[in-house]
């Protein structure tokens, strides 16, 4: 309908006239309702009541308005009463009954009753609907049905054996999976000064997929050769070797996890598209010659990570306790525990570039403490690799990215911890299968203007609140919402627990990782590196 | 609906990473966190705590947890709360039996266990034992069932005769085992008046669960065999054409420990509670009655061990294994039947669904959770031949 009757102009382009109810329905953006709409606040019971439309004559309830009207006809009402009051035409918007929800505020009400019902169930309800084939659970029946239809229908299988239901996550995985394979295959050619130890490690990594490389440090040489952003042709690749003994050096798996991390997309914005190059470039000595020098320290670190006593372990023990408590799950669930190892893997990966021998001793203890913290009783990268290997149809329930963030929020009690996590772009990873995939899907949109967008996660509601908690450092998942946050959400007042070691660590990390040099899809990246970290100290 | 906790309570300080250590301070911290936003997982953990406290005879802790549960539970709340109330009752009754200390657990729950809706004591009448089990919701007498079956058979053009076999049980039988033994002895071809040209169909609907599964051997036999196994042996000896087994898909058998029973039972009994919540209003007397029935069942499952247990549910995977061990082969349902069942379910209220397992099992599902399974078995061909040879 492009003829406007209100304004006399018949220009097809501009419709100056205000939209009439009779014309096309104006659609407000979700969560930003019409200012003069009627706001209705229903209690949870009323909201979920199936018979919302009640006959005023006999009090019979109906699910649909049409059914009610049909029924009313049967009452033989006099003509006057038969007409519906004009009030009914007024637009209605609904607020969420849950006080801690974003949509509880009338200014963020939702215009569709079915929509608010589903929202309430999804975010604040119990997940009662379980999928037959996998173990995913849903609170809304329609979500469950939709999932059941596609569950197990289309499956992409990588050569390494992992299954994917989504094309994009499959392609992403395949890029790095094959790259890993390629890496381990042609490592000799890539790294010039390699110690014999390294060679052996590299070869070990190139060995058949299932054999655990004993002392592997293929990661340093591996990434540079994987510089090509384009996914290499599919190859059988030892994507994720099985758990190795605790003294195992950093492993290519950590990179995979890193790459799967949504915030990794920030690093990915580098033209080379290679994390390691970026990290190297931002570290004090961005040369590949750094690598062989690193190896001894890394192995030293990982040795300490294995829990074996080393001289440096005593130094870092105090901070390691901090980390142990930080990264240890504050909850008892075993799955979360294993999640922390995956999480600390990421952390360790970031920490690695700072583990240069020429870093002053004070900061060198920090990485040590980092690694010590990682010795949560399991091998750092081995189990992580094991976790990562379990992609799509894993026996354990997959956690959505938003849930993961909330878990991270729970874990990150200290505000500085929160900012640290944020700054490093790490959120708690879980051993869940779809976690990395979801993230890696979002990875393709690095240009987030806000953190949420940068995470590329659909953090509509609960994810948002979880994220805010993360940023604010409050442990409570359902804590008070803060409608406005500075980009980095560093509300330091909410911090709890002092973390001296943590601050020192952050300084060292900050020094090592000049994040401000990174391109700012973060939006306020420059600020972050200096100002906000210091604020936390 | 209550807000769902992701992970555990957020009020746990970081110094207590292990949420469920047995130190009381961490417990109370956990509990206060749970009280505000409870969900099924939370309640389940509390129940497990209580059970472990009872097992370790930690009366104080058990009382503490029970107190919390009492505050959380309510027989008129949402399904999780109702479940919690019945589980609490079961635990209290178990505690008063198990714990030697003269502590009155009722006081821990503020007398909550004493009050509440009266349970319906199920009379294990003989007729119930002999015939197909009556689902409580139907409330039909056995004669009515006979009539319905007869009508159905007529509809399908199958000659049908309905006889109720009453098994005489001495009134003073002390334990349930004798019941079943006696019953089994009386179920032989002569008693059943099997005619040669008749095909025998054995229907074990909601029945196998009542057969004790504890290993017991008499002084004469060398190998231990359970009542359930001997029943299956006996059935096989009758050379039935098919054996149908329909039962609830949950592992609450004799060999499962208390903790796993609590978990399985809680997650399973949630299904009828949730279904009732969906279809009946909160204060419907019918609903209260059904729930009390289930509560009684829960009390027996949780509160007792060994011989005193009445029901020992078995999941269909375990049953399939058992049937296989006993020399039965599973037989698929014909497509027609499957389609019929599907349409029937589609007509009924949403929430109920059907799942067809690859092992020829049909499973009724509620919101995707397995509820009741149905399987069909035939005795293994070789064995049948052997039997007929020996007869």
TrEMBL record, chain A:
Regions of compositional bias (Low complexity) in chain numbering: 303-316
PANTHER family named in the record: SERINE/THREONINE-PROTEIN KINASE RIO, ZINC FINGER PROTEIN GAI-ASSOCIATED FACTOR 1
Segments crossing the lipid bilayer: none
Organism: Sesamum angolense
GO molecular function: DNA binding; DNA-binding transcription factor activity; zinc ion binding
UniProt-recorded name of the protein: Zinc finger protein ENHYDROUS
Lineage per the UniProt record: Eukaryota, Viridiplantae, Streptophyta, Embryophyta, Tracheophyta
Location of the region described as Disordered in the Swiss-Prot/TrEMBL record: 1-36, 188-249, 278-316, 517-537
Chain ranges of the C2H2-type domain: 53-75
Record GO cellular component, one term: nucleus
Positions with biased composition (Polar residues): 1-15, 280-302
Keywords per UniProt: DNA-binding, Metal-binding, Repeat, Transcription, Transcription regulation, Zinc, Zinc-finger
TrEMBL record, chain B:
Transcription among keywords: yes
Pfam families on file: GRAS (PF03514)
Protein name, UniProt field: Scarecrow-like protein 32
Family note: Belongs to the GRAS family.
InterPro entries, alphabetized: TF_GRAS
Region (SAW): 303-378
Residue span of region Leucine repeat II (LRII): 144-176
Keywords for this protein: Transcription, Transcription regulation
């Amino acid at each position: 309908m492009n003829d406007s009757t209100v304004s006399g102009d018949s220009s097809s382009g501009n419709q100056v006239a205000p939209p009439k109810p009779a014309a096309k329905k104006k659609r407000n953006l979700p969560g930003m309702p019409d200012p003069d709409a009627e706001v209705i606040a229903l209690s949870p019971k009323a909201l979920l009541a199936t018979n919302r439309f009640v006959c005023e004559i006999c009090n019979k309830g109906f699910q649909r308005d049409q059914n009610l009207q049909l029924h009313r006809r049967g009452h033989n009402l006099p003509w006057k009463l038969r007409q519906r009051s004009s009030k009914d035409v007024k637009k209605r918007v609904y607020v969420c009954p849950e006080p801690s929800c974003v949509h509880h505020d009338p200014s963020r009400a939702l215009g569709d009753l079915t929509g608010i019902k589903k929202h309430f169930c999804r975010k604040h309800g119990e997940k009662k609907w379980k999928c037959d084939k996998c173990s995913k659970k849903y609170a809304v029946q329609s979500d469950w049905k939709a999932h059941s239809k596609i569950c197990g229908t289309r499956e992409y299988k990588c050569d390494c054996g992992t299954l994917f239901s989504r094309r994009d996550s499959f392609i992403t995985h395949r890029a790095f999976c094959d790259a890993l394979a390629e890496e381990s295959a042609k490592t000799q050619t890539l790294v010039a000064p390699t110690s014999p130890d390294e060679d052996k490690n590299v070869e070990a990594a190139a060995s058949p997929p299932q054999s655990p490389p004993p002392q592997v440090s293929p990661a340093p040489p591996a990434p540079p050769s994987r510089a090509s952003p384009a996914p290499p042709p599919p190859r059988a690749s030892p994507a994720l070797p099985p758990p190795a003994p605790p003294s195992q050096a950093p492993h290519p798996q950590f990179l995979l996890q890193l790459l799967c991390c949504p915030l990794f997309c920030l690093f990915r914005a580098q033209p080379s598209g290679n994390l390691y190059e970026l990290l190297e470039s931002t570290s004090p000595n961005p040369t590949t010659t750094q690598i062989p020098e690193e190896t001894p320290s890394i192995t030293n670190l990982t040795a300490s990570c294995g829990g074996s006593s080393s001289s440096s372990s005593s130094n870092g023990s105090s901070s390691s306790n901090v980390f142990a408590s930080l990264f240890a799950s504050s909850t008892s669930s075993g799955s979360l525990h294993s999640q922390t190892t995956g999480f600390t893997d990421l952390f360790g990966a970031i920490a690695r570039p700072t583990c240069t021998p020429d870093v002053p001793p004070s900061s060198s203890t920090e990485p040590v403490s980092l690694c010590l913290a990682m010795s949560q009783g399991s091998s750092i990268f081995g189990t992580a690799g094991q976790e990562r290997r379990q992609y799509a149809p894993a026996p354990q329930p997959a956690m959505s990215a938003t849930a993961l963030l909330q878990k991270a929020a729970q874990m990150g009690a200290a505000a500085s911890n929160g900012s640290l996590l944020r700054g490093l772009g790490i959120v708690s990873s879980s051993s869940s299968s779809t976690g990395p995939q979801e993230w890696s899907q979002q990875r393709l949109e690095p240009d987030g203007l806000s953190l949420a967008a940068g995470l590329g996660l659909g953090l509509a509601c609960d994810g948002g609140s979880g994220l805010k908690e993360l940023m604010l450092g409050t442990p409570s998942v359902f804590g008070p919402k803060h409608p406005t946050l500075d980009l980095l959400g560093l509300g330091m007042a909410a911090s709890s627990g002092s973390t001296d070691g943590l601050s020192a660590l952050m300084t060292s990390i900050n020094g090592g990782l000049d994040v401000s040099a990174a391109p700012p899809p973060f939006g306020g990246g420059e600020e972050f590196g200096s100002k906000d970290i210091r604020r936390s100290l | 609906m209550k807000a769902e906790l992701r992970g555990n309570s957020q009020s746990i300080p970081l110094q207590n990473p292990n949420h469920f250590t047995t130190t009381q301070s961490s417990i109370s911290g956990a509990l206060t966190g749970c009280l505000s936003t409870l969900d099924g997982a939370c309640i389940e953990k509390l129940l497990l705590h209580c059970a472990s406290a009872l097992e370790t005879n930690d009366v104080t802790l058990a009382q503490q947890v029970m107190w919390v549960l009492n505050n959380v539970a309510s027989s008129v709340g949402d399904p999780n709360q109702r479940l919690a109330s019945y589980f609490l009752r079961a635990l209290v009754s178990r505690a008063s039996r198990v714990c030697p200390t003269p502590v009155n657990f009722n006081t821990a729950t503020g007398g909550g266990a004493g009050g509440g809706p009266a349970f319906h004591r199920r009379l294990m009448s003989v007729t119930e034992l002999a015939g197909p089990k009556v689902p409580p919701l139907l409330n039909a007498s056995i004669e009515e069932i006979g009539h319905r079956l007869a009508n159905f058979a007529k509809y399908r053009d199958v000659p049908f005769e309905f006889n109720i076999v009453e098994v005489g049980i001495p009134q003073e039988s002390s334990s349930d085992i004798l019941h079943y033994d006696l019953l089994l002895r009386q179920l032989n071809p002569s008693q059943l008046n099997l005619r040669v040209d008749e095909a025998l169909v054995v229907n074990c609907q909601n029945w196998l669960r009542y057969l004790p599964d504890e290993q017991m051997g008499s002084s004469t036999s060398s190998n231990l065999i359970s009542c359930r196994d001997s029943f299956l042996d006996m059935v096989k000896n009758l050379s039935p054409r098919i054996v149908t087994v329909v039962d609830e898909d949950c592992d609450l058998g004799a060999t499962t420990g208390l903790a796993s029973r609590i978990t399985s039972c809680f997650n399973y009994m949630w299904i009828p509670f949730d279904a009732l919540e969906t279809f009946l209003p909160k204060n419907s007397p019918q609903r209260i009655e059904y729930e009390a029935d289930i509560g009684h069942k829960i009390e027996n499952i949780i509160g007792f061990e060994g011989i005193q247990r009445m029901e020992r549910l078995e999941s269909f995977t375990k049953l399939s294994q058992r049937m296989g061990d006993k020399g039965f082969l599973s037989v698929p349902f014909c497509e027609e039947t499957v389609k019929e069942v599907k349409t029937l379910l589609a007509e009924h209220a949403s929430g109920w669904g059907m799942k067809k397992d690859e092992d020829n099992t049909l499973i009724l599902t509620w919101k995707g959770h397995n509820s009741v399974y149905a399987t069909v078995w035939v005795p293994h061909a070789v064995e049948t031949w052997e039997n007929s040879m020996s007869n």
